[in-house]
Amino acid sequence: MTIATEGKGALQVAPLARKTLQDEVYREICELILDGGIAPGQQVTIQSLADAFGVSAMPVREALKRLTAAEALTVVSGRTIGIPKLSAERLDDLYRVRIEIEPLAGRWAAGRIDAATLAELRAQLAALEQANRTGDVKAYLRANRAYHFTIYRSAGSTVLLPIIESLWLQISPYFHLLQESGNYRTANQHHAAMLAGLEAGDGPAVEAAIRGDIADAYRVLAGLFG
């Protein structure tokens, strides 16, 4: 489509509807991965995703290209995708980056967070504690992601947030393995410390709590994949 402009030339832009659909499908698949909807070892076909979303295969295929390039998914066969295997080397690499990036977002959030967001975090922490008590892994994983990203969004950085999401797309499919070790209980202790730091406006305390949460999860996973 051509859009006239003042002066010389014209703007050439792609139709919005198609791009919007591709982005929506991409976001839906990201949400599926982040919430543990695709488990390691599970194979998913392009057509099954297209059918589930009620779209053609094209936007699904484009979304999967982006996610395989980001190493959030891997091609198992021509039309089948899955979660990449987690090696000890890959786990170490993800840990080294997460332990630097995510605590930084928490420190920034401490200086910007408002009362409404703190109230949201209190409700999310209650949901985390309830999910741990009942052993509801899916509910815990959803609440865990919501809690962390409420904090990370509060950092106010449109540069940092996509980097963190990219890291979570690569590691979060393995978070379900933490439950049997009792990690969810200790993680909630770190979550409570994050909230206390945010309420006090204490950036270093939030930073330390996030670092402890990431380190504890890493130790459990390293014992499984090391």
Automatic annotation (TrEMBL):
It comes from Tistlia consotensis USBA 355. One of its GO terms (molecular function) is DNA binding. PANTHER family: HTH-TYPE TRANSCRIPTIONAL REGULATOR MCBR (PTHR43537:SF39), TRANSCRIPTIONAL REGULATOR, GNTR FAMILY (PTHR43537). SUPFAM superfamilies: GntR ligand-binding domain-like, Winged helix' DNA-binding domain. It holds the Pfam family FCD. The keyword Transcription applies. This is Transcriptional regulator, GntR family. InterPro entries: GntR_C (IPR011711), TF_FadR/GntR_C (IPR008920), Tscrpt_reg_HTH_GntR (IPR000524), WH-like_DNA-bd_sf (IPR036388), WH_DNA-bd_sf (IPR036390).
